[in-house]
């Protein structure tokens, strides 16, 4: 391991299991010497998250439901007590009602819209508010987004709207926090088979589509997202903020791929 993250302490929010993007990021950070704290959502996930946290030597594993301000407060109070500071934060949290992650966006209900935007977008600002006082020496905040924020993707629906608002939040937070040396960025990850993704209609088809139509002709791995997160959370990216960085095998750059020579 190198010293890229040594001495850096950070909070990872959004591990559900070992397929979570947050876990891919945590593993990579650990390999580069970072210290990690974790949150989990509810008891059912605690059983999965604790052993993972143990495996990377983490001693701070806390419950957090981002719809509850008191729950978020408790996390940052505990981190303040244990560490007294924070260098980085990973927000890998999203939710929308499964029934509305298929079919037409037009059907979106008010209740699901409000809840999806609260959990998938506002929560990033809510945690940023509490992280900032712990980042007196500067810091790096990272969230996860998806191309459905920029262009229509089938079934992504209200999540696309939530991610568009999240990406705008990244820019506003970056402007607010730049003077304090706190950087705010997002990774726009290509599709990865996770618990959250399994809720999206036709997800297997979306995976195939990205595999066939991205310049690299493959889907991204947790390690690849981890590598880019390492860059954005370490001092390697000291000049980068307000950025939405695509880790999607280049899919977002393509209008149309050439028909494969083999298929002609
Ligand atoms: P995941 O299911 O492993 O992680 C989603 C996490 O959100 C879970 O840990 C869940 O507990 C948490 N969460 C949901 N509601 C919460 C709440 N009220 N309070 C606290 N936590 C809550 O799936 P993932 O794909 O790793 O998702 C992580 C992030 O990556 C999400 O923002 C997702 O939109 C984004 N993303 C995923 C993909 C993909 O294809 N998997 C692509 C681009 C972006």
TrEMBL record:
Pathway: Lipid metabolism; fatty acid biosynthesis. InterPro entries: Enoyl-ACP_Rdtase_NADH, NAD(P)-bd_dom_sf, SDR_fam. NAD(+) binds at residues 14, 20-21, 41, 65-66, 93, 163, 192-196. Pfam families: adh_short_C2. It catalyses: a 2,3-saturated acyl-[ACP] + NAD(+) = a (2E)-enoyl-[ACP] + NADH + H(+). Belongs to the short-chain dehydrogenases/reductases (SDR) family. FabI subfamily. This is Enoyl-[acyl-carrier-protein] reductase [NADH]. It comes from Tistlia consotensis USBA 355.
């Amino acid at each position: 391991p190198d010293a890229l993250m040594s001495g850096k302490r950070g909070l990872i929010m959004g591990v559900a299991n070992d397929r979570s993007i947050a876990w891919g990021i945590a593993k990579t950070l650990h390999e580069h010497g970072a210290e990690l704290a974790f949150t989990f959502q509810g008891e059912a996930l605690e059983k999965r998250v604790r052993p993972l946290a143990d495996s990377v030597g983490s001693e701070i594993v806390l419950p957090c439901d981002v719809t509850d301000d008191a729950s978020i407060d408790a996390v940052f109070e505990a981190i303040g007590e244990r560490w007294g500071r924070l260098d980085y934060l990973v927000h890998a949290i999203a939710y929308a009602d499964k029934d509305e992650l298929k079919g037409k966006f037009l059907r979106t209900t008010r209740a699901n819209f409000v809840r999806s935007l609260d959990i998938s977008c506002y929560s990033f600002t809510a945690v940023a508010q509490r992280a900032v006082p712990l980042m007196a020496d500067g810091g790096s905040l990272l969230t996860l987004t998806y191309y459905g924020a920029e262009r229509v993707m089938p079934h992504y629906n209200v999540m696309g709207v939530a991610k568009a608002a999240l990406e705008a939040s990244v820019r506003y937070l970056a402007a607010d926090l730049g003077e304090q040396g706190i950087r705010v960025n997002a990774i726009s990850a290509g599709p990865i088979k996770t618990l959250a993704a399994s809720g999206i209609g036709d997800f297997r088809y979306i995976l195939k589509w990205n595999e066939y139509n991205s310049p690299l002709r493959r889907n991204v791995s947790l390690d690849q997202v981890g590598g880019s997160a390492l860059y954005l959370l370490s001092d390697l990216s000291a000049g980068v903020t307000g950025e939405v960085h695509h880790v999607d095998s280049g899919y977002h750059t393509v209008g149309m791929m050439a028909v494969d020579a083999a298929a002609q």
